[in-house]
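Why does residue order matter? Because the sequence determines the fold. Keep that principle in mind as you read this record.
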Amino acid sequence: MSVYDALIVGAGPTGLSCGIELQRLGLNAVLIEKGCVVNSLYHYPVNMVFFTTPELLEIGNLPMTSLNEKPNRTEALKYYRRAADHYKLNIRQYERVLSIDGEDGCFRVSTEGRNGTVSVHEARKVILATGYYDVPNLLHVPGEDLPKVLHYYREAHPYYNHDVLVVGAKNSAAIAALELHWNGARVTLVHRGAGIATAVKYWIKPNIENRIKSGEIKAHFHSKVTAIEPDAVLLSTPEGAIRVRNDFVFALTGYRPDLEFLARTGIALEPKSQRPRTNPQTLESDRPGVYLAGVIVAGMHTNEIFIENGRFHGKAIAEAILTGLRGQ
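Structure:
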């Protein structure tokens, strides 16, 4: 059995960056990914355009090109595949981490492949770069487990000529509501706040507000979903309880890190923010030999770290690991 210098959990942009930086220092690493490479980006809306320029998404000093000023999802997927190929990273896709046992210098990571095969990998260090997009914030209402309730929006076509409710008022909800409307869905938006979030992209916010003002998209603010039925949704509004005809619900209320996985791994969390305790210079957690990279460093404050700054975690961690291995 091979013993890796480092095992990286997650093959998103931050995980790939960690693998590249470790390789540059001559260290042997394996990446374990429960989905496909950059799995979160793959599950983004099909027509998504990044709110940033190509150079801010680059890793490994590989230039990223785009037909327009801002890259889209397809261009990003192609770029990160190219980065993985260029550096010949050892990535095990569709393999889920079950447990991380052992101690600094001698970890044993148990995983399960998509065919049910259980494997054990040995590594001197472990890096968790698991992101936050896999655990949606739930509504916690009756009926949320119905098949018609979706926590991810991909594209609008399947919902043509249907009654669709969108829960939320940030970027993902606003974009989904507009695309669904443009593609022939009858859209109702519900949000507990007073209106569309101020942080919504500047070219999206006036567009959806105009659609709401004209009545093309119905909106209920200061409102919330109280129950979901097979053919309707019950809302609590300032005017009282109402029942809205409904075929599909998009509960786009945000996502959070897999805190349960972090706890099982022995990562201590700050009680209030759920922010993992890490060394700010090395990003090593309270569990010696286990490092955190990317958005999970911020705990529930997922708006603090993006690809643009999380990609730099790899260099700091790789250098810390090299120093640590020299001392072992």
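The longest helix spans residues 73-86.
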